[in-house]
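Usage

Read records sequentially. Each one opens with the input sequence:
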Amino acid sequence: MPSTADKPRTRRAPLRPGDRIFAGASTGAGILILVVLAGVAAFLVTEAWPAITAPAEEIPGGEGLIVYIWPLLFGTLLSAVFALLIAAPLAVAIALFVTYYAPRRIAQALGYLIDLLAAVPSIVYGLWGFNQLAPLTVEPSGWLAENLGFIPFFEGPPSATGRTMLVAILVLAVMILPIITAVVREAFVQTPRLHEEASLALGATRWEMIKMAVLPFGRSSIIGASMLGLGRALGETMAVAIVLSVSGGVTFNLISTGNPGTIAANIALQFPESTGIAINTLIASGLVLFALTLVVNMAARAVVERRKEFSGAN
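and closes with the structure output:
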């Protein structure tokens, strides 16, 4: 029998100059992203180290770095998570309506409107929340405190100005809604036509077809889009700084005057007037936000990787 060494070896076709340039550019871009990420992490750690090692009495507030950052971290998570809980289901519903229910002209107009909402600056959302949305929530907040005050979220007393965590959550939900909707809509459009037709041919209704074919196919995209929206909500600065009346502390009460701040908004408000160890403290809080965002993205990637067994090819 002829040995394996006697078998003819297949030779790779030589790469064209354009392919080599594209491969090199792609590799360089990937390496550049890692270098920039490492540089940002190194800068944050270096500048935050004096605050990490400083005595508690030198930190603003005089109670230590953890006590300073914890209320801000709590407010960041509270506002971002609740905004995601509001925006994600609405985004999926809007994407389904635009893709499968709306007439073509209406769907096209809604698509343009969604893309336009994603391009609105955050400061515009903040001004809208401060001038329009906050006054409108004063009376509903009073009703919530009176009838649902046994729930910690609506314990009250309600704010007379409406500049509460509830308004900040609603503004953040509106801000991340178009981002999630646009990504999910594109995923639904790419659902294999054969899957949809096979479901309908078996006698499924339109909703049953969506439940059995469209939603499973777009599950990973829904998760990825939700984490993209969560990332923006975690790092949002100006809208929260304009809307929220911060008094510090940790509370689940969404309608009272006592509101925890967020890390990004606190940095934006305090940085211009800070000096010395106060700047290092703010950078340390930025390091916590950086780590939180990195963990969220890694968790989202892990979830998406688990869902890869369902695709349009199998």
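Summary fields computed downstream for this record:
- The chain has one domain: 74-308.
- Residues 310-314 have pLDDT under 50 and may be disordered.
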